[in-house]
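Wait, mind explaining this?

_____
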Amino acid sequence: MKKFLIALSVLAMGITSSQAQVALEKQKPFDNVYLGVEGGVMGPLNFNQFAPLNATAGLKVGKLFSPVWGANLEGLAWFGDNRWETGSLGYARSHTFVRAINLGLNGTVNFTNLFSEYRPDRTFEVGAELGIGYYINFGDNNLIQTDNVGDDTELTAKTGLTFAWNLGEKKAWQFYAEPAIIWNLTHGPGDAIQFGKQAAQLGLFVGLNYKFKTSNGTHNFKVWNVGELNDEINSLREQLNAKPKEVVKEVVKEVVKEVPTTTTQTISVDNLVFVTFQQGKYILTNDAKKALNEIKEGRHVQVVGTASPEGSKEFNDRLSQNRADIVAKYLQGRGVIVDEATGKGVQGVTSNRLAVVYVK
């Protein structure tokens, strides 16, 4: 039933186009969150005195809004003095263990899922990160100069590619390698925003993310195959049209209530004829007429019409009565005696667009 309802929701949203073969179960606010650790090495992008490399280590917490788009907060601690600022400054000559930190907000895109169908069991993915950050340098007073030619705080940007491997049976772990550039955007003068390789660091980072379990019981997005769900819906519709025993349980109860207590006949499915209608309609189909033709002339019948939950109560009450009346009129035209034809509105919570004929 859950799959059936999800499929109906998907159909209502128009997702099942020829280009969309799957649908994703809606996530809750804290679904698809991950936490990671990372480390790497960096050096000046202008390759002027590239060595010794600067070591880095950091933490990352992020969320995937979809299999394609996401965002994360990243904190990196930088070690080493090799030209954090501009090429002209040379070595930063900080005197603390952590030379600088960079706090960044990054957007992420998964190219693999963007250009091919999402699969939660996929092992290898390629993506990208692009973000803005705030850099703080520690322990070098020489960097604080007139007119911000050098500064101990800077605005930064990050651009990088990610090559990720999803690990484990449940794909809860993700190992990645990321070549990236950290750009110093305000290296002076006057903190003017500018990109330049003379004030950028080229790095290679590796990390390990853990994707927390989501409300759907997995560590990734839950996928429903729309094609299979459509097949299941069609199968249910065929069953309903053939002999909708389960759907009309509530309707049968209503028929029993209307039967005089003096009758000695036992009500069963064999005493009932079911007529189905299209949504919002009360026109008899050829199949419906064929079923009604099985009722012999001169028999007494009682008709109950119903409607599905869509629409207002007033509309459904009127529609169910019209369905009962159209069946009664057709039977009377064949010489069947209609004792009563009553519309009962919506019965139950399923799509019971029916008229039930009780043959006495």
In short: Residues 1-20, 86-90, 258-268 have pLDDT under 50 and may be disordered. The CA atoms of residues 31 and 37 lie 20 Å apart.
